[in-house]
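Field reference: sequence -> structure
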Amino acid sequence: MAYDDYLADRIRRLLKEKRAHFEEMKMMGGLCFKVDHKMLCGIHIDKKYGDSLLMARIGEEAYKTAIKSKHCLPMDFTGRPMRGYIFVTPDGFDSEDDLSHYLELCLDFNPKAKASKSKK
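Structure field:
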């Protein structure tokens, strides 16, 4: 199963509307969007959930509020949650306003985020 192309198009359109200069990177069957060479958000195919989830890098402060939503899950690729990241289920980004909200959280955190070490 591949990631949701329609969701990818929606993310692209909203990032362009927000005038964010982004790049895309395919990763592990999903798609990652990066701003300033830092992971912003992505689309992850979750085998347990059976659908594409929005992965959002929102930082630890925003995480405290967002994780209380019934549509948000801790991001736990490895079996333990990653701090400052969430998964959002499809019902949580069904409307453009909802998707825009999560992208705005990602864009607000992005300047504070640390970039991964580049590989030589």
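Note: The chain is about 30% helix and 30% strand.
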